[in-house]
């Protein structure tokens, strides 16, 4: 058993390493050709950078993930007889998820293409939201939807929750992409935590995909850490949010009698920080009488910088909050109701402390 676990872990790390190398290489190519083609994110408006920065990092992330997952699928199909027993016995199961995975990646690609167009021509928010809702609805209609507990076992209600969740996360990561390294590092931590939570209940398909995402984001961060030499743009942030939203929906939360049903709360813990950032920004904009889709510098990262942190310190702070709030997801599958309440309360309390400190500092500045 330990030997099989080691082989599965090595296979997962291989996927992550391959995605890392490809993403780092594609990122270098994106920097070179985006500069030549004038595909740049130029300063101005609510943007904080001082000089034009190449776009195209989202394409590098997308292409790396597709190539690695595609190569893994071909290996499972064509070279099954040459694989170690620990992998070969799961090859049929992996191939059985092909249709579902193709639907997810295909619709995520549509979202990426929409973001790529938006990077060039600034699509209206109604068009962006409409395409996001359409893609999420198609995914839910195809069978990829939440089936938690009554009444969410009903297809229509489960489908509505699925659409709301995926569209919400897509926009959350788009909003989170406002500072060097932020969206990629939060996405990396979230993918790693959720992949770990899924592996803990014996699931293999979501962890394999999520480890590929981890590797691709790590490779992109080679170019995106402060000071960034490459941005993922709306193409990358929309793709990342949609893909993570879909993967948290298809995840297996309990697979045996010994696993707790409260594992269904794992996505909420892992994604707590992006959801907090999005909710707080929307409330601020509505309170000020502005559109929730109007860009500004009122995000959590910007508010931390306004409190005296440097931009890298703000990113590290949000990364640590994401990690601290999401670690409980690794334990939920073993907890009873009281244990699950404690873990959820811990994450809520952590975000509450952040909110109180923000509010207290704001009042001090007013005085």
Automatic annotation (TrEMBL):
Coiled-coil intervals, chain numbering: none
Species annotation: Aquisphaera giovannonii
GO CC list: plasma membrane
GO MF annotation: an example: metal ion binding
InterPro entries the UniProt entry points to: Glycosyl_transferase_4
Location of this chain's protein in the cell: Cell membrane
GO BP term, example: lipopolysaccharide biosynthetic process
Binding residues for Mg(2+): 174, 234
This protein's name: WecA-like glycosyltransferase
Sequence intervals crossing the membrane: 6-30, 51-79, 99-117, 156-174, 181-201, 207-226, 238-256, 262-284, 314-333, 339-360
Domain of life per record: Bacteria
UniProt-listed Enzyme Commission number(s): 2.7.8.33
Keyword NADP: no
Membrane disposition: Multi-pass membrane protein
Keyword set, alphabetical order: Cell membrane, Magnesium, Membrane, Metal-binding, Transferase, Transmembrane, Transmembrane helix
Cofactor(s) needed by this chain: Mg(2+)
